[in-house]
Q: What sequence folds into this?
């Protein structure tokens, strides 16, 4: 688990070095798992949580991806808890501590672990055609300007980030 919001980079570096020692097929499997986690977390409540945590600023596709990369770095228990109930993120000490300073969780580096490891191990780029995933729809269209709806969905997070 990343102890603070900046630790995702350290985790990515260590995981990349470790994974690069595996067979290319295993590295492809790791990328498939990452993509499955990204698909499983592609949900409207999490997107709303990312928006709240970002201080109400824009949270476009890339920003949401980086947020989910950070969430993956938190480990299985935190990840599965947030997917089940995005408002649980308000319980995380690093989210609580970062709220007054509006520091956004960013796990961009996490998303490249398998790609980087594959390149280190083989000297080639990870093949995009190695697997295919059916990505679920995010859910209903979200109106990020509807603070009342966001508060109803995520009461603990919106209390931390009154935006």
A:
């Amino acid at each position: 688990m990343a102890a603070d919001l900046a630790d995702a980079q350290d985790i990515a570096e260590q995981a990349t070095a470790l994974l690069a020692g595996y067979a290319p097929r295993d590295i492809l499997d790791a990328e498939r798992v990452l993509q499955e986690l990204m698909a499983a977390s592609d949900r409207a409540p999490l997107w709303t949580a990312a928006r709240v945590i970002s201080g109400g600023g824009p949270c476009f596709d890339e920003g949401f991806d980086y947020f989910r990369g950070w969430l993956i770095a938190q480990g299985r228990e935190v990840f599965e808890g947030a997917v089940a109930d995005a408002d649980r993120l308000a319980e995380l000490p690093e989210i609580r501590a970062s709220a007054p300073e509006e520091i956004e969780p960013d796990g961009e580096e996490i998303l490249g672990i398998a790609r980087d490891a594959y390149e280190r191990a083989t000297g080639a780029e990870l093949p995009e055609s190695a697997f295919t995933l059916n990505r679920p729809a995010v859910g209903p269209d979200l109106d990020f300007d509807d603070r009342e709806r966001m508060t109803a969905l995520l009461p603990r997070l919106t209390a931390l980030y009154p935006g």
